[in-house]
C-alpha cells in the first residue's frame, strides 16, 4: 500500500480530532478529556489551531447545550508534539443565567502547552451593527485551490498543505507559501471552507473556525516584509490567540477571511482578522500576536 493510500481523509481527521473522549471518568477539580494528535501533520510540531479547537470543544462539553462559545483568549505556552495525544482539563469558573466561563488547559507529557479561558452565552437579542464586508473581492470559484498551487511541488510540507488540510483555502491575489509577489502590504484576503459537510452542532462549527483561523493569521506581518513560509532560517510561532464569534457560522460554506497587521516590533507581529459569510455577515473576529525571527541580512526591505 502506498503512502497516500495509508493517510486518512482530511475531513475524517478533523472530525476525529474534534471528537474528545471523557478519559473513562477520571476527575480532579477539573473535567478531564482526551484528544488525538494529527496523523497527517507534516512536521513534528503540533498545529496551534488544532489545540485551540480541541480546547473549545472540551469547554463546550461542560456547559448547557443551549450555550454557545462567543469568545476565547488563549496563550500558547510550549510547542506540542503532533504525534502524541493530548489531555484537556476544564475548570468551571462561573455559571450565570446567561453566561458561563470555563478555563481549559491542554497538556502533553504532564505539562500545559495551552491555557485558555472561554465564555459561553445563551442566544439573546440586543443592539446590532457590524463592519461592512470589503467590496470588489472575487468569488472563491474564480481562485486556485491550495492543491492546484502546491500539489505539483515535491516537498513534504507543500504536499501536506495541498492534500492533508481539511480546509479548502484560496488566497485572493498571491499567496506567501514560497515567495511574496507584488507590493509588500500588511493585509490580505482569502476564502476558506471545510472540504466536506460538518455536523450541525454550532459549537463544533465555531471550534473548527478557531482551527482554521490559525493557518494564515500571521501572513500579513510576513507579507509586509517580503517573508514567505519557506524562507530559510525564519522562526515563526503563535504566542497567543483571541477570538470572538458574533453570529452563527457555517464552516462548510465559503467564508471570506480578511486580515491585517497594524504593528510589528521586537520580533513580534500583531495580526487582526475578520470572517464574513457570502451574504456579507460578519460572523467572527480574531487577533493573534506571533513571534517572527529572521536571520540578519535576510530581509530585502
UniProtKB/TrEMBL annotation:
The keyword Chaperone does not apply. Residues 44-121 form the Acyl-CoA thioesterase-like N-terminal HotDog domain. Gene3D superfamilies: Acyl-CoA thioesterase, double hotdog domain. SUPFAM superfamilies: Thioesterase/thiol ester dehydrase-isomerase (SSF54637). It holds the Pfam family Acyl_CoA_thio. GO terms for molecular function: fatty acyl-CoA hydrolase activity. Homotetramer. This is Acyl-CoA thioesterase 2. It comes from Arthrobacter psychrolactophilus.
